[in-house]
Structures are given as C-alpha cells and as structure tokens.
Design brief:
This protein is mostly beta strands. It is 10% helix and 48% strand. It has helices at residues 13-26, 186-192, 357-365, 375-386; strands spanning 32-43, 47-58, 68-77, 82-94, 97-112, 139-154, 159-173, 203-216, 227-237, 247-259, 265-279, 316-333, 336-353, 390-401, 407-414, 423-428.
C-alpha cells in the first residue's frame, strides 16, 4: 500500500514482530485482534516523527488472513506537519471484490512550494526555512482532506480491474508561521505574477473518478525476486463544484524483478508515467501523483530519493527507479526469519510537458533583468530548463522480516545541488 507516512523506525520492528507473535498465540482465530503500536522515525523533508497507529483485524476463521481490517494512524513531525488516516480493507464485504475505504487529513503550515517546472527555478538553501534570517521563501500553508473508495476484482489469473472515486478539499493560505516573513515567499510572487489565479489561491474541491487495470506475476508481493507488476489508470475530475478546473490524466507504471543467478541478488526497476491529457487542473491538485497519494510532485522518499519533496512539478512526468537488492545475511530473530539486504539505487525523472509554461515564461520575461533578451530565445532556454533530467543516487538497507514486514533506512544524494543536498528517510517496505 503506497503511503508516504509509513515512517516507522527500524527499532520498532522488535515491537511489531513481538506483537504479531502475541497475536498468533493469544488471538481467537474467529474473533478480533487489536494491535496498538507507537511510531517514531525520521524524514529529512518532514523531520523527526512521533505518533502511533492501531491495527484492528477481524479474522473470522481465516487467520492469518483477515475478513475485515481497520487501521487508524496519527503522526506529527518536528517540521510542523501532521497527518491522520483511517483505512478499511476487505475482500469479503462484497464477495469476489476487494473493497478499500480511506480517509486522510494532512496539515502542513510550512508546505514546500518550489514553483512550477523544476529547474526553471534555481534553489537557494539559504531561503528554505532559515530561522536566523526569518525566511521561509519556499513555504505556504496547506491542508487537505481526502476520502477514497476503491474496488478491485479479478479478470484472469494475473489480470485485475480497479475502479474508485475520490474527494479532495484543499485549504491554501499565505505563509503565517511565527518567526518567518509572510511577505517574502515564492507563492506570493506567483500570485502577483498571475501564475496562480485568485479563484484557486485559497484552495477548493476536487472529485476524481478512476478506472484501471493491473497485471501481476510477482512471486512474493512485498519482497519479490522475480516477476512483473504493471498497471494503468485513467483519472477524470469533472468540474462538479463549478471552480473552473477539471482534468483527465493517465498514469502507467511497469515494475520488473530479475534474479541474477540467485534470489540473493535481484535487479529491480520501475518506470512510471503520468500525464494530463485534457482540462485545466488547479495548481494545488497538479502535483498529486496517482500511485503515491498523498505524495506530491517528484522528489522525496517515494519517487526521486534525495531530491527535495515536491521539487519537480509539471503537467506530464516520466521517472524511473533502479535498484540492486543484495541479500547479505540470513538469521532468525524472535522466531522470525530475517534477511538483511543492502540496496544501491539510481533514480531519474523528467518533466515531459511543463505546467502553465507560456504564462510562466511571459511573466519571467517581463522582468527588467531579462526583457532585453528576445522572447523566442528566452522561451527556448526556459523550455530546456523545464525539461532537465533530475537524478539521484544512494543506498538503502532493509530488514526483510518473514517476507512481509520491511523496515528500511534510505540515504539519497541528488546529482544537482539545485535539487537539494541529500535525503535521509526511515520507511517501511521497498518503494516498489
């Protein structure tokens, strides 16, 4: 399940495995299991995290599988973001169909806004949440509520269909955080330049309808050693709320896992595309990635590791992740089989179609510093920047516990310092 906020410390894997062991011995196989767990971790974009979650399962005679699963999660970060989630999952509510319901609330008073189209904007680390100078140039205040209902069923042995409906409400405000200058932000400059319209500057409502196909031949879902996982989704957001914003997007992703002579050495790669084919999406919904809700743009722990979160925002994206998963040690811990894995990786992403590019170019060209440059020449140079390749590399380490619980620590470095210095993340699971 793709969730940005599964940042549970590796140290808590001990608690988790102990909790599962206890459930195995003490839970009525036909009844309910309630497992509360604290959560701590770190993400270089969000800071230190503290919180917890409650996992509630009704087994109904199917243990260790469940008939109904409920999950509650609450997380608070040292860089002032907070996140709350409720999820329901069942393959038995509607026979033959997997049903998932999700409700997210995300509050970030210092949300990252690096502008449209990536490298068009140079990044200055001195302007990013600089407490000494009282500057948070790349910040705005954003909250959102997202409710989703999803269904999935079988078409054949390896092919599934999916469909869903989603509702979003965004609250957007100017930066208003003690110690930072509210008048010196990129968000305000975009508003003044007309790149963000008045009717979207404070947020709005979005309803999405999604249909898709999924093809899966992986041998193990959480830690595959061979097989292919491919899916495609179409997302349509009509203007039901009369905001003047609608869109049609297509997202496709291919993941393949290749054992290099042994299951201890696996080459894994993921290629993904998301494009806006029609409509007029609002600026606040454009960064949303179909495969990583509620993740935003390219950058951060789930797309381009080491690159700043939400650094690359365009209309159409293409990105890839490449890993060499190397199992270096096997052992048993608390009666659980554990594999220690080291994974060097390389990530790359590009904007294939910029977002509001002509408006952006015209606004920048009107600046006194560049107005002497012929417009066509200036536009060509801007387009080249917008389509620059963003790359990162690094290494991660995993503890694969019984093939399904995978605490991970990741360290990534961008090739270009305009994309940040580095990224350090504690997560659960491989990113694909």
């Amino acid at each position: 399940m793709p969730r940005r906020l599964l940042t549970i410390s590796i140290l808590l894997s001990v608690l988790f495995t102990t909790g599962i062991e206890g459930a195995d011995k003490g839970t009525a196989k036909d009844g309910w299991s309630v497992t509360p767990l604290p959560a701590v971790g770190y993400d270089s974009d969000f800071g230190f995290m503290g919180g917890g979650f409650i996992d509630i399962n009704y087994y109904g005679g199917l243990y260790p599988n469940y008939r109904h699963r409920f999950c509650l999660e609450a997380l608070v970060y040292s860089k002032h973001a907070s996140y709350y989630m409720f999820q329901y999952d069942s393959r038995y509510l509607i026979p033959g169909i997997r049903t998932q319901a999700k409700l997210f609330f995300d509050n970030n008073p210092l949300y990252w806004f690096y502008g449209f189209n990536g490298a068009v904007h140079d990044y200055d680390a001195d302007l990013n949440m600089n407490r000494d100078k009282g500057i948070a140039y790349y910040s705005l205040d954003r909250k959102f509520l997202n409710g989703r209902l999803e269904f999935e069923g079988d078409l054949s042995t390896h092919l599934d269909w999916s469909a869903g409906i989603s509702y979003w409400h965004y609250w957007i405000k100017e930066l208003n955080w003690k110690g930072y200058d509210p008048d010196f932000t990129l968000f305000r400059e975009y508003r003044q330049a007309g790149l963000i319209d008045d009717d979207e500057a404070s947020g709005g409502n979005v309803a999405e309808f999604q249909v898709g196909l999924k093809y899966d031949t992986r041998d193990i879902e959480a830690a595959p050693t061979r097989g292919v996982f491919a899916d495609m989704n179409a997302v349509y957001a009509p203007d039901l709320f009369h905001t003047g914003h609608d869109y049609l997007k297509l997202a496709a992703r291919l993941r393949q896992y290749i054992s290099l002579g042994t299951e201890r050495l696996v080459l894994a790669y993921s290629l993904a595309y998301q494009g806006t084919f029609a409509g007029n999406p609002a600026f606040y919904s454009q960064p949303s990635l179909t495969y990583f809700k509620p993740s935003d743009g390219l950058g951060g722990a789930t797309t381009l590791r080491g690159v700043l979160y939400n650094r690359v925002v365009g209309s159409d994206y293409l990105w890839g992740n490449f890993e060499l998963r190397t199992r270096i040690m096997d052992f048993t811990f608390l009666k659980r089989r554990v594999f220690a894995v080291v994974t060097p990786f390389f990530d790359a992403g590009i904007i294939t179609q910029p977002f509001r590019f002509d408006r952006q170019t015209q606004a920048f060209h009107a600046n006194d510093n560049v107005s002497a440059i012929p417009y066509d020449d200036y536009r060509s140079s801007m387009l080249k920047k917008a389509r620059e390749l963003h790359m990162s590399y690094g290494i991660s380490a995993q503890a694969v516990i019984d093939y399904n619980f995978i605490p991970t620590i990741v360290f990534g470095i961008p090739f270009d310092k305009r994309d940040g210095e580095y990224g350090l993340y504690m997560t659960l699971d491989y990113i694909f």
